[in-house]
TrEMBL record, chains A, B:
Keyword Membrane: yes
Keyword set, alphabetical order: Membrane, Transmembrane, Transmembrane helix
Taxonomy, superkingdom: Bacteria
Membrane topology: Multi-pass membrane protein
Transmembrane segments: 6-23, 35-54, 60-82
Any matching Pfam family: PQ-loop
InterPro entries tied to this protein: PQ-loop_rpt, SemiSWEET
Organism: Candidatus Brocadia sinica JPN1
Protein name in the entry: MtN3 and saliva related transmembrane protein
Amino acid sequence: MLWSIMGTIAAICTTVGFIPQIIRGIKTRELRDVSPVMLTLLLVGCSLWLVYGVHLKNPIIALANGFTLSFVMAILLLRSLFRRNRAKDSL
Amino acid sequence: MLWSIMGTIAAICTTVGFIPQIIRGIKTRELRDVSPVMLTLLLVGCSLWLVYGVHLKNPIIALANGFTLSFVMAILLLRSLFRRNRAKDSL
């Protein structure tokens, strides 16, 4: 029981952990220092974890990675949006 | 067999995914846009996952999170190092 609570807290931390990055990005309108290669690898990794979690019928793995996947996608989209806006501003 | 290969690739992606962030940070000497709240939450989350993985005697969970933990620590340390250097430069 104690162990599954620990696993759940672990999953919550590594999932909601990406929300502060989205908030920071929206506030500063800068995500230049965040590596796009890291984001892409996390995207691929979380997609595979999601499929693996569904296969294992493990709701913690599936849900946590489903959410993380959407957060990482959001960061990647925001990053390219800010990049495009910067390019426009410099015209 | 196919599924455990998929799980392993997933774990490798979400673990080595942080290496490009370290490389980018070292190259640009800037990690300002990377959220310190995200890094701290990932640090706590990976530590709990590591303990949970050891408890479950699951080497994939334990190893992947052990490595991710050390990469996230490195990013956090580099970030505060670059921050301190910037503060010194502006004196």
